[in-house]
Model the fold of this input.
Amino acid sequence: MQRYFTDQKLKTGDVVQLDATIAKHAIKVLRQDIGDRFELVDPMHHAYLAIIQQSSPLQVAIDEDITKKVELPLAVEVVCGVSKGDKSEWIVQKATELGADKIGFFNAQWGTARWPAERVVKKIARLQEIAKNAAEQSHRNQVPDVTMYAKLNQVDIRFVQSDVFENISGSFDIIVSNPPYISENDKDEVGVNVLASEPKMALFADEEGLAIYRQIIEEADKYLTPRGKLYFEIGYKQGMDLKKLLSLHFPDKRVRVLKDQFGQDRMVVMDDEK
Done:
């Protein structure tokens, strides 16, 4: 079912008039009519079923609250240097679909692309619209904020090339990992475009895809602070296996398998709350 975002605060029983943008898409593009339904999300991130009462101007009756818990359990911001062509649009679309709360861009010192100051407002407005469309398509309850950073102040970012923890030192509050996790037995499920564009070592792992997870988990206690947390992206078949592995090595920690907006297992979280 189509989903739209509105700036109006909603409650069941309301009859509201919606803006021209929603009206154009619902009536002209989808050809909806009186009695047809779509989903409407308000600024409080509540989703409602809306029933068309009048088509011009578009008025809807707000029916039941259909809000589901689809957002990530923590706020995630994606920050990246600006890029050439339409890559920034692709980044915003995919970051929104994956659940990012905020998406930031900056002109990198050594980057090959730059956004002139006079283009930033128009560019960000365009990307914000893409984020809204992607949030509607993926049935999220909120639209991520897209912004442009003049500079990355007070942020210490270091890139270290390492085979898991081989070149890593220190203790960390959070470790996030999206390692190669596809089993060779599941190769047929991988898109042809992915196989053509990604090196094999970036996709596949031994032990039914669990080998690198196991390596990280077995060494993680040396690199996590006492209340440290682990976040793993996973394949949709791996939730319970990874939960068992984490519970074995961290019996005093809480381990959860979280689903994505499509209802598939997508993340395993280990934190300090039983």
In short: The chain has three domains: 3-65, 77-149, 172-271. The chain has a mean pLDDT of 90.
